[in-house]
Amino acid sequence: MRRRLPEERPTEPPTGYKIARPVLSHDGTRAAFTGVSLGAGQPYGVLDEARCVYGRRHSAPHRRCDCGFHCVHDRATAEGLLCTAEHRKAVLLEVTVLGVYIRFERGFRYARQRVRRATVPPCDCGAAASLLADAGWGRPGWLVLEAACGRCRGGRRAVSVVEFARLAGEGLRVDAAAPPASPGGLPGLGMPELMAEAALLQARLDWFQSELARLTGDQRG
Known about the structure:
Blueprint: E1 15-25, E2 31-34, E3 47-49, E4 69-72, H1 75-81, E5 91-103, E6 107-120, E7 131-139, E8 142-148, E9 158-160, H2 161-168, E10 173-176, H3 191-216
Parallel strand pairs: 6-10
Antiparallel strand pairs: 1-2, 1-5, 1-8, 3-6, 4-6, 5-6, 7-8, 7-9
């Protein structure tokens, strides 16, 4: 006799967390996400249904396959995934688990999901991101985006985080994570950086004083 898996009937859909890469359609009319591992080749919308990545005809999640959406139970675990080098520029998603799901020790594998909230990491320079800019690579028909501030955007194609949320639709909320703060200092700056900034300011002040003396003819300085 085949052993049946236990069934759950929650009063409300479970909440989960995952990481993903934001993507923009080549014509700029749609925004979506793509996974960072198994499902990286299939962009999904804010409200979407999982499909078997191997092209099999069964519905996801199938217990004899590893298809379906994946997420973890708690936010801290998902945030820990962002520490690896290849995932530093991914965004953190808060999702609602819908439809059939299989519960694991650390999370769910499930049939449908709604992405409720996306948190965008700071720009490489340390400032809070106001844009999602072309990361320089993508999938057929889709550009992968990464966090950027207005100063670091350069000439790259980009959309604001507000515009990305609008294009994604379904009430998605997109937030920019606060830049990292150094204890006792300015956000993202430690003592060596502050000393270098102070030295640069002093050098510019010395130059300004010498130029002022030259223009006024006062050489006593």
